[in-house]
Amino acid sequence: MFSIDFTNDTGNNWTNVIGEGEETIVELVENPKKTNIKNTWLKKNGKIIKNKLRPLIQNLDSLPFPDKELFFKEAPYLKGETYYFMTSRGCPFGYTYCFNNYLKKLYHGDKWLRKRSVKSVIDELKETRKKFNYHIIFFGDDCFTFDKQWLRDFFKEYKKEINIPFKMLAHPHFMDKEIVSILKEGGCFKSQIGVQTPIERVRKEICKRSDTNELIAKVVAELKKQKIYVHVDHLYGLPGQTTEELEKGIEFYIDLKPDVISQYWMQYYPSSEIINIAKNYNMIDDNFEKDIINKGKIRSSEIPELSKKADEKLAAISRFMCWIPFLPRPISRYLLRSGLYLDIFRTDKMNKIPLVIKHLGSLELMRAAYKSMKRKRDLENHYLKLNQQYK
């Protein structure tokens, strides 16, 4: 999906698909020697050819249902009790660190955010439920809840035809009391929300997000009120955010008290706006972009000065945040304000304890944890077999 500049590549002939590829890949398979296929860049006999883009597919219902059996056959660990599903393409936003940031610019003038019809989604779910017998659905749309009327119409049919628990990704700007109620009545048991940072200044100036801490807190409170498990995401490695600033911002996570705080290192997707922002903060330079990011090494943790190992305080913050959902707020505040968390959370072994305690409280959670660990082992074994096969 990304347009990376391969013009300095000295390797053999190659073809790269740019943007959405359904129509392109069919044409490429049928005409492998053709050099003017839209949505392709190619190198042939030392010459770089950059073909034009074709328009986005606006009617997503026109596409056939994906044949996921092909993937399950090659990688059985992907098949489990959870079925991963998309009802839309695109996102209402184009945050600086997100792949949507570049793709919206790439397709400037085309309608980037598109939604499948209720009938199309229900038909595919009915077909795949019979085929794969899954028990949970994960709606992985970048912003599943952006169309309230679609949600109303969809869950009327979903309750009649499918009626199994689901989890999904949401955005604070598209979550209110009515939407949360629709989700809960439809069978939602878990909502994942990207907060990225507790510092509003960084969220606004660096990420270009307009959601405030007040809005996020309001949405999380409503989800918890309706007994929907709340999972928030936090990003390390954002330009312009110091460890000291983050330490002060932890108060927000303590007040928020979600069920889980998932922590990730920011990834520098090629051609995304965050790269120039990082350059302005002297975190990276043009050579780093060319030699590291554009060759697929995109994690911000690969910048030496941002490594967790190079910052013991940041490492302690990371371990402490694993405990915030579990500890009573007064204890979390005391550990933070006194600085005791720096001494207590010196070891990574402390990270796992809150999750273990949470899972012990429910047979269903314990079962899910066991299946997750089994899938992880299956994945590792699968990669080992691939390595042996292609040595």
Question: Care to give the gist of this entry?
Answer:
The protein has 391 residues and is of the alpha/beta class.
Q: How many DSSP helices?
A: 16
The radius of gyration is 23 Å
Strand content: 5-15%
Write down the secondary-structure element order.
EHEEHEEHEHEHEHEHHEHEHHHHHHH
Question: What would the CATH topology of the largest domain be?
Answer: pyruvate-formate lyase- activating enzyme
Q: For the residues shown, what is the average pLDDT?
A: 87
CATH H level of the largest domain: which superfamily?
tm_1862 like domain
- Low-pLDDT ranges: 1-8
Q: Globular, elongated, flat, extended or rod-shaped: what is the shape?
A: globular
Please summarize the sheet with the most strands: 6 strands, parallel
Compute the number of structural domains.
2
Residues in helices, as a percent range: 40-55%
Terminal residue distance: 28 Å
Structural class: alpha/beta
CATH class term of the largest domain: Alpha Beta
Q: How many strands in all? A: 11
Which strand order does the major sheet show? 4-7-8-9-10-11
CATH architecture level-2 label of the largest domain: Alpha-Beta Horseshoe
